[in-house]
Amino acid sequence: MSETTLVIIKPDVVEAGNVGKVLARYEEAGLSIVAMDLRTIDGEFADRHYEEHLERDFYPNLRTFMTSGPMVPLVLRGEGSVARVRELNGATDPTKADPGTIRADFGESGPRNAVHASDSTESAAREIALWFPGL
């Protein structure tokens, strides 16, 4: 079933000049870009996006990182896009991600793990509405 999901190419990938390489991975997997932007967010926006993590120990560092520079949020569409994107991305910790995944190839550690992806169709709907209202 065709569905949409949100991906955020994080500031570390933008800074390293690897956005095109990451986008190519998704397109080569048969996913279509529905919407895309380049933007820098503030702490309030980060808090809204990561609302389920606000009280977690790791969140302050993640918030600082996500507001540190430009990133590329995008909406992808395709068959089983939520699961497919998460498979392409690899494990959240780049040091534990399978070789050839986006996080293994472009991530560093902790919040500097290259990309964010929605973890369910429900999360995708909420996140897409936040980042791309009216889509």
From TrEMBL:
Q: Which EC number(s) are documented for this chain?
A: 2.7.4.6
**Which terms are listed as keywords in the entry?**
ATP-binding, Cytoplasm, Kinase, Magnesium, Metal-binding, Nucleotide metabolism, Nucleotide-binding, Phosphoprotein, Transferase
Location comes to: Cytoplasm
Instruction: Give residues annotated as binding ATP.
Output: 10, 58, 86, 92, 103, 113
Q: What is this protein identified as?
A: Nucleoside diphosphate kinase
Q: Which family does it belong to?
A: Belongs to the NDK family.
Q: What functional role does this protein have?
A: Major role in the synthesis of nucleoside triphosphates other than ATP. The ATP gamma phosphate is transferred to the NDP beta phosphate via a ping-pong mechanism, using a phosphorylated active-site intermediate.
> Which residue range or ranges hold the Nucleoside diphosphate kinase-like domain?
2-135
Record PROSITE patterns: NDPK_LIKE
Cofactor(s) of this protein: Mg(2+)
Please give the Gene Ontology molecular function terms for this protein: kinase activity
Catalytic activity entry:
a 2'-deoxyribonucleoside 5'-diphosphate + ATP = a 2'-deoxyribonucleoside 5'-triphosphate + ADP; a ribonucleoside 5'-diphosphate + ATP = a ribonucleoside 5'-triphosphate + ADP
Matching entries from InterPro entries are given as: NDK-like_dom, NDK-like_dom_sf, Nucleoside_diP_kinase
**What segment(s) does the record annotate as region Disordered?**
90-120
Q: Does the keyword Protein biosynthesis apply?
A: no
Which ranges form a coiled coil? none
Could you give the subunit structure recorded for this chain?
Homotetramer.
Active site as annotated? 116 (pros-phosphohistidine intermediate)
